[in-house]
Structures are given as C-alpha cells and as structure tokens.
Task: structure prediction
Amino acid sequence: MSINKIKITTEFIKLDALLKFSSMVGSGGEAKTLIQNGEVLVNGEVCTMRGKKIHPGDKVTLGDNEVEVE
Result:
C-alpha cells in the first residue's frame, strides 16, 4: 500500500474534494459513486458522506492507496 501525504492550508477539506485533489479519482462523479458504494475509508472506517470534513491527521483509503492529510 502506498501512503501519500497531502498538505492542506485550510482547516479541513471535504472528502470528495480530497479524492480529486490527491488524484485518487479522475472526477467528482467518480468520487461520489465510490463514496456512496462504501469503498472509501476514513481513519479505517467506511464513510458514505462525501461532504465529510477531513482534518490534518486523518487518513483516507481507497483500494491500495492511502492519503494522510497534513
């Protein structure tokens, strides 16, 4: 599994935006579908809320890819 670190300059980033920003998905529609299907984990737990606020220290996993927000 590859872990990438993504630095944000705001208090939080929404889950669907993070997936696009980190290039884990190609489009917002793809992000929406994957999140609704329960394929995205936030801190090891399935998350189906695409507007979930992701803060520094949170880890988001999709398949073999993991992103840690700094």
The beta strands are 2-6, 13-14, 40-42, 45-46, 53-54, 59-62, 65-69. The mean pLDDT is 95.
